[in-house]
Please model this.
Amino acid sequence: MIKVIIERKIAQDMESTYDAAIKDTLRAILEAPGYISGANFKDASDDNHRVIITNWTSLTAWQKWQGSEERRNVIAAIKPILTTTEKITVLTA
Model:
């Protein structure tokens, strides 16, 4: 199993837009082969810093989702409100 940590900085006053878009992302990811679970977090000291932690059966499963058209489609709704490029960290045991 691997963990994938995705960090994003969203534009000021775009929290509700981000929250709505991330719900669509989480719905889409549920059907991704190899996806186990995930959670969305807000930085306690910075409302614009968001962190998603997902669990996958393998690096290959994550990479397939990462490069998928489904992910590109759901991320397209988020990209306009990001102030920086998302940072992705893959962790293995």
Remarks:
- The two ends are 7 Å apart (CA to CA).
- The chain has a mean pLDDT of 94.
- Residues 12 and 40 are 18 Å apart (CA to CA).
- The helical segments are 15-29, 59-66, 69-76.
